Amino acid sequence: MGISERKEKQKAELKQLILEASVKLFSEHGYDGFSMRKIAEMIEYSPTTVYLYFKDKNEILFDLHEIGFRKFEESNRDLLTIKNPLLRLHKMGENYIKFGLENPEYYDLMFLLPAPMEFIDQVNNIEWNGGDRALTALKGLIQECIDKKLIKEGDINAIAMGIWGMVHGLVSLYIRRRCDKLIKEEEIIPTMYQSLNWMINVLEVD
Amino acid sequence: MGISERKEKQKAELKQLILEASVKLFSEHGYDGFSMRKIAEMIEYSPTTVYLYFKDKNEILFDLHEIGFRKFEESNRDLLTIKNPLLRLHKMGENYIKFGLENPEYYDLMFLLPAPMEFIDQVNNIEWNGGDRALTALKGLIQECIDKKLIKEGDINAIAMGIWGMVHGLVSLYIRRRCDKLIKEEEIIPTMYQSLNWMINVLEVD
DNA sequence: ATAATTTACTTAACAGTGTTAATTTAATTG
DNA sequence: CAATTAAATTAACACTGTTAAGTAAATTAT
Questions:
Q1: Cα(B53)–Cα(B18) distance, integer angstroms
Q2: Would the pTM count as exceeding 0.70?
Q3: Which of A66, A78, A119, A157 satisfies CB 3.0 to 4.6 Å to A58 for a cystine?
Q4: Are residues B191 and A158, on separate chains, in Cβ contact within 8 Å?
């Protein structure tokens, strides 16, 4: 059935086209500038056509958030070359901050906006794989540090949430503009890395 | 001029009425359920009347965010009884988390939503006093801890941002539902306090 | 006391949003 | 070539924030 195969391929292509337009629209104009009607306009279809390929706006935002996670994992590939787990942990934190600063729109979607989680709630039997992979990686690395007695012992979950919380907190305070009213412009980003630095230092076993 | 005085008082009263309706609407239904038209309906005026008392929606949200800060400062009054600065720092962190968990809508406005910062940008000669007071208090406390050699030395700004970042990160991951897909429901909140606990412990000088 | 003016508020409208139902157009199958 | 299926569209609903224009009442001036 070559004909139905080609049709499916075409359907997949239009879906891809919608997604690509969405990526462009979202990464350039963020959540506020993002709308179903604008996507339709970009691909030169009527707004309702988009609904033949995606259940709703949240499904598109969920897909975009997954693209963000893949981008994030990509940016973490260079960690594999670092042997020392504590050093790797430090670098992982730096990468996290760097990713957030360089991809604020994706970061927003991955960790700040309600949309992707709302989609997960609506659709059954679906997990938050992106977040799960990230946290699992972090916990594995912390365990390694503890095993090699590089950092002080403690509950893995608490340590992981603490470290994640801190870098996430820094990035999201920055993205949501809670820093620029309190800290001199040119000192914000250096301070963020210094904070991470300080934390890695204090948790290091002497 | 008793007559114009009374008129001004009436104006102030309606402004207050709008604000009270806004508080109720926002704290019960959050940002998504909040609209100018709904406020108008609540106070039984036309939607455009609201614009005679507030420049736009962002001004109302800014005012609400300030109410949130006052509520937060209120909840921190019990800190004054604690003599030991490190203990006070710990308790301040706990209060921060507790406030976020108990007042997620206010927290959203104070630290997560763009609206209040957008208002500050639009209006000239206005500072983010709420955030400024909070960070100043935190930095003062950290300085006290360092002076009394209770915690390891380091750059005050970096330490303050690190601690704030961490508690903010934890609370905002919780509010934006990034925890419940990764951690067992009943373990989330205890883990948050454990994370704080762990951080206070590692930064303590031996 | 009556006319002019200011104040307080409303109606109507614009330009947008997500989404659904009904309808048309095009392609495929019988 | 007709019947059916698939794909896309138009129209509509119920919202949103916000502005311009108009109305009614209260206040001030003559």
A1: 8
A2: yes
A3: A119
A4: yes
